[in-house]
Design a protein that fits this description.
By secondary structure, the chain is mainly alpha-helical. It is built from 3 helices and 2 strands. The chain has a domain at about 10-100.
């Protein structure tokens, strides 16, 4: 029976730096919504006629969702492993951010009054224009 010598910090870092990098990317992805909202607060207020409180209510919903769902996802990671939970999570997070492009100005973003996607296949995407005045423009508006 051969005993393995304990690794030094440098050897441990060389062997497992991809894990640290993956963790960095994961935490960056999860924090991007709350960190970047400050830049978009004034343009969103102007584009949708929302108050600052209404714009920032999304961060509150995001934070409460994280607090409530973290134990559930922690159990899922323990049961099925980080890769089987993390990869679909990254994909779903990307899709959730893509859905922000379908914002209609309603705080609940209900389908009442919202235009359906053209051809039923391409989602409407919105971009904030920072030239002159802040206003929402749609890539597929008629």
């Amino acid at each position: 029976m051969s005993e393995t010598m304990p690794r030094t910090a440098a050897q441990e870092w060389r062997a497992h730096w991809p894990l640290v990098f993956a963790g960095l990317l994961g935490f960056s992805l999860s924090a991007i919504a709350s960190i970047s909202l400050g830049v978009f607060t004034q343009p969103l207020e102007a584009a949708f006629a929302w108050s600052r409180k209404e714009v920032n209510a999304g961060v509150l919903a995001y934070s409460v969702g994280m607090v409530v769902l973290s134990p559930l996802f922690g159990n899922m990671v323990d049961r099925w492993g980080p890769r089987r939970v993390g990869i679909p999570g990254v994909i779903l997070t990307g899709l959730a951010f893509a859905l922000f492009g379908t914002a209609t100005g309603s705080l609940l973003n209900s389908s009442r009054g919202a235009k359906p996607p053209p051809c039923g296949c391409v989602p409407r995407t919105s971009a904030l224009s920072f030239s002159g005045s802040a206003r929402a423009t749609s890539a597929f508006s008629s």
